[in-house]
Amino acid sequence: MDMDVELGDHVEDNKHKNVVVGWRNIILAYKTLGVVFGGLATSPLYVFNALNFKAPTEDDFLGIFSIMFWTLTMIGFVKYVCIALNADDNGEGGTFALYSLLCKNANIGILKPKNTDSKTLPDNSRNIESKSWLQTFIEENLIFQRVLLFIAILGMCMLIGDGILTPAISVLSAVDGLRGPLPSVSKSAVEGLSAGILIALFMLQKYGTSKVSFLFSPIMAAWTLSTPMVGVYSFCRYNPTVFKAMSPHYIVDFFIRNGKTGWHLLGGTVLVITGAEAMFADLGHFNKRAIQIAFLCGVYPSLVLTYAGQTAYLMKHLNDYTDGFYKFIPTPVYWPMFIIATLTAIVASQSLISAAFSVIKQSVALDYFPRVKIVHTSKHNEGAVYSPETNYILMVLCVSVILGFGSGKEIGNAFGLVVIFVMFITTILLTLVMIIIWRTPIIFALLYFVSFSILEGVYISSVLIKFTEGGWLPFAISMVLAIIMFGWYYGRQRKLDYERTNKITVDHLSVLLSNSEVQRVPGMCFFYSNIEDGLTPLLGHYIKNGHSLHNVAIIATLKCLLIAHVDSSERFSVKKLGIPGVYGCIVKYGYADLLDMLEGDDFVTAVTKILKTCIEENTDQLPISSIEEEILQLEQAKSVGTVHVQGKAKFHVSEDNSWFDKLVLGLYEFLHKNCRSALPALWFPLNQRMEIGMLYKI
């Protein structure tokens, strides 16, 4: 009976914990979605500022509100909340997660993924008839595979571009509120103050945000509650019938009356769903249910009420659309709303900057981006990271955007291009997921693709008109980042492919070491390899040319898994290779794990402990004296000194190769030459590092 009571209490405790965690996720998701959807740039008054009408009418504003309502509903709710959130890759969302999901379920990657066991690769031998026609086409078409990889990378790079445009447009729009009650404040002063705020924000990044992050939630709560309250006040006072604009007939009427001019205005209305893709990308930080509840019960009604109130205000003040957000705010609460809006803009900027750091860190950890310095700014939150190179590049670009464009309207042109292109990429990848993985009937998959392609295609055609008015900037930045990532990924995969093809076996290594000219020298050597199913050709190159190998040689492979953390009990995997003093070691870690300190011990000590345990467990195979001798050899080698050997391989591209290989591998060599080494991330002393060079002939 007592046991039953204890078990029941345990179950109740777990239920209570799950409820608490669930509500915590919902609150955090609401705060984050408030950031990505709630910026000043997405307010309807900002969109109305794009109107080039000399005399807009009430029907024009009703048409714009109807467009925004249905865009938010169709793209924000139907596409992302109802469909896209179900297409996660081990809980992760975003364009690259969709691509990773496709690669795991079909042989559509250019090359085998890095450090992926054969068990996890899609089985190409399974029933061919079970494959869809689309999967078969992609698997047999290398050009399509390259294009698919590139557009997936491009989508992720455009999200990184948000880290440039969101701080610029949010802070500039908020600070511009000074010019309402203080007409003497010049446009240049607003730009200078905005640039100063951003510079200060970027300079503080190296200290981390953990000490002030407790302020973020109250700020976002104040923003997401105050704006709809002002909205409710506005439509109750000016036009309670404004919700009639939810009828799609107002959209049709708007385009019939305004024709081409109405089509041009879509470039502004696209900003109302700027947070939809970020909501999908944030899936890994919360969970699907938390995001859905936060959106449907909090963010969505808050935005609709705010938009309705702003529309009702404009219908009674037809000429106030040019003054942006602050004309909508009642005079008694103007300054409190100005403070809240400015703080919200700073929090939104911080969120996007932190997201850019996180994306860069994950890309580096998964070997999709050239190595940059990553610093963890919190002992308690390993997701809090800072990248000096990324930070200062973002700062220069953000300030340049403010000083170069000078107005939120022109920055909005650039912002809209990024937003809608990422969404269109998601539509393409999600359609492939439907057909290849979900096995959705083709009629429904086509219905989804055609519907959203037309909707987003119309938006794309509209924002492209603004290409020369600022839209080129994020597109150019995203293309440069995408080319860098594609070149780095392709080069790394070609290098891995060469090493797998030319790997040496344990028997071959034994033959090399049995040569009388090869000496075993005192000390311990960690020889780092990119492959785990064989020995890298760099090892044979080292032995042949150096005529030596340390008494204890550990062939180590660092394996980053597609998870945030690896349990300490599963971090190391060691084995004896059948040659005296030669061992294999796989170090597994998640993209949010620290490698410089492992459970209080340094890297070498931690690996040595595991090796001793491995040797001691072979008591049934070897006499005790041999085991003690092997452990003594291990300890002596460590006491003599440790050297960490890393290969520095370069491609030798022959004339027979295609122009594509020559171009992309040339880019990779340039990036590899100028990026950081892989070993400094482990904090090895400089005097213990060694690099050996080798030419890989392609």
UniProtKB/TrEMBL annotation:
Q: Which Pfam families match?
A: K_trans, K_trans_C
List residues of the K+ potassium transporter integral membrane domain: 29-508
User: Which residue ranges traverse the bilayer?
Assistant: 21-41, 61-82, 147-169, 214-235, 262-281, 293-313, 333-360, 392-408, 414-438, 445-465, 471-490
Q: What's in the keyword line of the UniProt record?
A: Ion transport, Membrane, Potassium, Potassium transport, Transmembrane, Transmembrane helix, Transport
Give the membrane topology: Multi-pass membrane protein
Q: Where, subcellularly, is it found?
A: Membrane
Name the NCBIfam families for this protein.
kup (TIGR00794)
Q: Name one GO cellular component term.
A: membrane
| Keyword Ion transport in annotation | yes
Please list the GO terms describing molecular function: potassium ion transmembrane transporter activity
Protein name as it appears in the record: Potassium transporter
Main function = Potassium transporter.
Q: Which residues form the K+ potassium transporter C-terminal domain?
A: 522-698
